[in-house]
Structure formats: C-alpha cells, structure tokens
Amino acid sequence: MSVNGDRNRVATIFDVARLAGVSHQTVSRVLNDLPNVRPATRERVEEAIKQLRYVPSQAARALVTRRSRTIGLVATGLPDYGPSSIVLNFNESARDAGYAVIATNPADAERATLRSATEMLIRQNVEAIVLLAAERAALDAFDGWELGVPLVAIASETRGRGIRVALDQRQGARTAVSHLLELGHREIVHIAGPHGSMDAEERLSGWRDRLAEAGIAGEEPMRGDWSPESAYRIGTELVASGRAPRAVFAGNDQMALGLLHALADAGLRVPGDVSVVGFDDIPEAAHFSPPLTTVRQDFVGLGRDAMAAVLTQLQDEESTAPPPTRVPRLVVRASTRSV
Amino acid sequence: MSVNGDRNRVATIFDVARLAGVSHQTVSRVLNDLPNVRPATRERVEEAIKQLRYVPSQAARALVTRRSRTIGLVATGLPDYGPSSIVLNFNESARDAGYAVIATNPADAERATLRSATEMLIRQNVEAIVLLAAERAALDAFDGWELGVPLVAIASETRGRGIRVALDQRQGARTAVSHLLELGHREIVHIAGPHGSMDAEERLSGWRDRLAEAGIAGEEPMRGDWSPESAYRIGTELVASGRAPRAVFAGNDQMALGLLHALADAGLRVPGDVSVVGFDDIPEAAHFSPPLTTVRQDFVGLGRDAMAAVLTQLQDEESTAPPPTRVPRLVVRASTRSV
DNA sequence: GTGTTTAGAACGTGACGACTA
DNA sequence: TTAGTCGTCACGTTCTAAACA
C-alpha cells in the first residue's frame, strides 16, 4: 500500500554540507566550479553529493539567479518535415549550450492562440522566446508586444519584431527557375504555397523575379496548401482544361508529389512531357517516380543559427558576427529534362 | 547606451498588494482562486494585476509547492513522421492539461546519452518523464534506475520499466498480411525495420504469426533501416538475383516507397506484378506511384493516451480506466491486387 | 461563531562581506 | 596579504496560524 504521502525527502545543499563537514556555501562553490576551494575539500563535497544523490533545485536556483536556463519555442507548421527538422536541430543546439527547451505548438496562427501559448512560456520564466513562424500572421501576433525577454524569429520575411533567422527562400526559388530556364523552358508554372505563408511568398517572388529577368512576365501562380492533395487537384484541373504545362516549379516536395501523381494519371511522362522541380528535399524525394529534382535546405544550420542568435541576445557569448543567410542549393535528379 | 544593468524590475506579489491596498496573502488567494475573498477585494486585486502586468514567478511557486507544472519528454526517432506526430500531439494534450513540456532529443540510444539527457530534465524538476522509445536500447537504459518521478514509456514492447502506452503494432501487421492473403498471395516477403527497433520486431512478429496461421512458414525477413534508400537497395538486389517477390509487406511507408522505386527501375509493375503494403500512412502515401495500400496509425490518440497516463500517475485526475490499446487499421489503395 | 484578512515562516539556492589560518 | 571558508541575507511565492470585521 504505497501511499503518495511518503514523499521521499530530497537532499538539499545543507545535507551535503553536513555530510562533508563544510558550510552550504562551500558546497555551492563546488557546484558552480568556483575557485578558492581546496582540492581535498572539493573531493569530500563531491563524494557527499554522490552519496546523497544530491541534485540542485533548479527552482531555487532560478529564483535567486533570475535565470531559468530555459528557452521557449513556439513552433507552427508541424509535423511537416521542414519545421520538424528545425525544431529537432534547435533542441540539440540548445542542449549543447546548456539550455532546456520548452516547446509549444499552437493549434492555429490566431493572435489569441499564439499569445496565450507564449504567455505560458513566459510564466515558466523562459529566458528567450524563439518563434518558428510559418505564417505571417504568427509574426504579426507579436507586433507591439513587450515580452520582457528577447525574441528570435525563424521566418523568411524581414518585417516585424525580433531578431531574424532564415534560409534564403527567394534565392532558392531563383535557383530552381534558373535550372528550368537553362533547360530551355520558357513557360514555367508555379504551384505556390498558401496565402499567408511567408515561405510561399518568398518562393513566389523568387520565381516571378527570375522569370522577369529572363523577359518572361505576368504569369499568375496556382495556389496549393503544401499538401500533396492540393497539387494533385491543381494538376488534374490543369490537364483536364487542356493547359497541361511543360515545366512546373512546385512550392514544396509534397506538392511536387501530388503533381507527379496527377500527371501520371493523365498519362503524361515526367520528364519527357513535363519537367518538375520541388523544394525542401525531403527524405522521400529521391525515390519519387521519377526521383525529384529539388532544392535542398540546410535545416541543421538553421537550427544552429537560431540558437546562436539566442545566445548573442543573452550575451552568453561574445556576440559573433551574424551568420550569413544560408542559400539553399539545387539537387538535380530525374524529374527535369531539356525541351 | 542601454546597459544590461538596467534590468527592468518585474512586479512582485507585494507590488500588487500595495497597489490594491491589501496584503500579499490576499493577492495569493486571488491568484489561486481560493475562497474567502470579498468580490470587491478580488476586483481591486485583479485590476492591480492587470495594471502592473504582474506575472507570478513560476520559480518561486515551484520552490514552495515542489510542483513545476512541467513534464520532461525524451524523444527518439525524430524527425520521422510518426515520432514527430506523437510529440506534437503529446505537447497539445499536455498544454490542455496545464503542463509545459521540456523536450530533449538524444543523438543516439546509448545508455550514457539517454541518462544525461534525462538527468537534465530531472534537474529542471519535471514532474514526470515521458520516454518516446524507438529502440529497445532506449528502454533498457532506464532499467534499474530510480528516477524519483513517474516514467511513462511510449513503446510497443511490454518489457522494462514504466507505465506503457502503445499502438498495437502486431495486430497492424497481421491486418496487412491478412489483406495480402485474402488477395490470394502465398509468398509474402517482409522488409523489416532495423534490429533493435521495437516497432520493427512487433511488426515482424505479426507478419510471421499470421503467415504461420495460414500454414506458411519459415520465411526470413529482409532488413532495412526505415529509410527509402535501404528498401531501394533491397529491392534492387532481390530483382537482380532473380528473387523478385509477388507480394511485399514493407515495415513502413518510406521503405515501401524505396521498394516501389526499385521495382519501377526493374520494369516491374505494381500492383500488376507485385503487390505492396506499407505501414504508417504518412501524408505522402496516397500519392505514391501507385497510391499505397498501408496501415494507418492513430498518433493523435497515442499522444493523448500518454498524457492521460501521466495525469493518472500524478493523480491529478481520478484514475480512469487505462485506454484500450489502439489497433491500426488498413487503408486500401492501389498498390495491391489479387493474384 | 463566521467569513475575511493579515503577519510571519518556510522552500533551497547564490551573492556578499566577514572571518580564519 | 591571500587563499579558503563561513554566516547572513534575498529571491517571490504558498502555507499556517492568528487577528480582525
């Protein structure tokens, strides 16, 4: 009959001090690797710590130092591969820097939802907030809001509050379009991500700008929602209405997949009849039918950059030069061919 | 010249008390929704809180209550779709229950790595540990270790410590094999996940058991590592050595994709020449070429179950009956056909 | 008495100045 | 002097018991 009441009392710094025959302050010095502790004393203390299985109380520590060693992460766009990878890599970087990460995943990008999610983090005394923002609305929710802690935003638009960390979506898109242009394509359809997505807008701009530079103008993009289904539908409609394209730049790999599906249904061959370029280089892309030419993003680097930005804000480290914006690079596979 | 020194002092419970003309204890009562506060007083206090933008210090609260309102999550297997979805849904459930989640992603399943990752969580005073364990080694790392807090393990094996939450991998695999048997297949090859993966072993057992029941015995599985590449390689070798199968049960959708790729390369048609069944139902599966017949898992429910198990352990709620193990269900698409 | 409010004591650390050899 | 050590205080909350309408 193990009752919850017999809460095993946990050792405090005083227990350790008593066992080691020193004051609690000396134990504190040992814990924090401060100088002026005789090696023999240090050893006695460490032995006592081990023996009592003493673990410092982070709560007490946070109370007096006003530092929680904790960072809040507000992440939207999960569980897609890109956002998931960024979160994963950010977590690793944070751990390496000695910080714990409290993550929250707002159900939508509504202002109220984001604010209450963030307020929960603030209540947990996080030292900084990192916002992984898929939609512009997520960024806007922080406008004119004094958080009391630094804000680092992972977002591909420069508007709005907070230190910005990003991958160069626009340049990535230009690279994709350039590839198709070099293959001799002139009509390059774009299946863009949804309105409100900053990545979608940046990629769209890159596509439009690069086309304009090549003297090709005025094309309107199609709009998907990142899902394979949306692009499947768009592809099916294009074919049905006799507007089957010769070259497509899809806003992400999932939509490229949906498009490939629609084209295959219509009996069109890729890359024989249609060239397709994706974006992200998800692990599946190399095994699409055909293997997808796409643009690879450095999510590992992005996660690191975000943590570096946090540390700079917290002045834990001498503020290193801001990292150069990482430019995605083209991965050519079998879904594109010259006309 | 904004120096770090001008740290904006944050309002405390005493500031609120002074402004409202009451004692700090009355403010505390208001904060915690305790009775015996006159409505007029409560209102004055709430007004003062709003005016000062007062936020209670979680650190101070945690120190005295010994409750951090925080749960530690040790997650392996990211950033794959399954684990990512589970993490996402667990986070949401935790937030709904008023808990923050500190997540950590060990780089590998080594005992030392897992322990140090977990110890970081313990130092943060988490009230419970949730272990999302892909490999058996992750579970083993916790054997014989008194954490001091409840442990809930999301893992498909019943061995080892901690409350267990899982999806019925074995039954899911049986369903997949049954489907192929009903289509008249007798030789059903299995491309299993890696040694050490509990999901892989469970699915493998389900496949073997179901075959045995059908009077088909002794088949040895192929071994992939969950990645499309591994299955592509396996598929290519099978075909090259003249052992092209007529029916394959792939351990997950990604490996099914790699196999489809290898079969397509070899000029074999799916489902005409080969029937393929996957596992997971990732968002891409419906748009593979051909759309993949697979087994769908309820990751949303699993995340909820995990949080429910935590709450039961913490006795926040009257312990409800443990949820029935969730059985995955078959989703039939176009990659399977009768012989 | 009864409902409301208050003052003081924890909680377990780190910072600081004082003390000792 | 100086390296090593110690005692007191503060951090911001909740809990307990006593005082007040």
From TrEMBL, chains A, B:
Matches recorded under InterPro entries: HTH_LacI (IPR000843), LacI/GalR-like_sensor (IPR046335), Lambda_DNA-bd_dom_sf (IPR010982), Peripla_BP_I (IPR028082)
- UniProt domain HTH lacI-type: residue ranges: 11-65
> Any transmembrane segments, and where?
none
Alphabetized, the UniProt keywords read: DNA-binding, Transcription, Transcription regulation
Instruction: Return the protein name.
Output: LacI family transcriptional regulator
Name residues in a coiled coil: none
Q: Which Gene3D superfamilies does the entry link to?
A: 3.40.50.2300, lambda repressor-like DNA-binding domains (1.10.260.40)
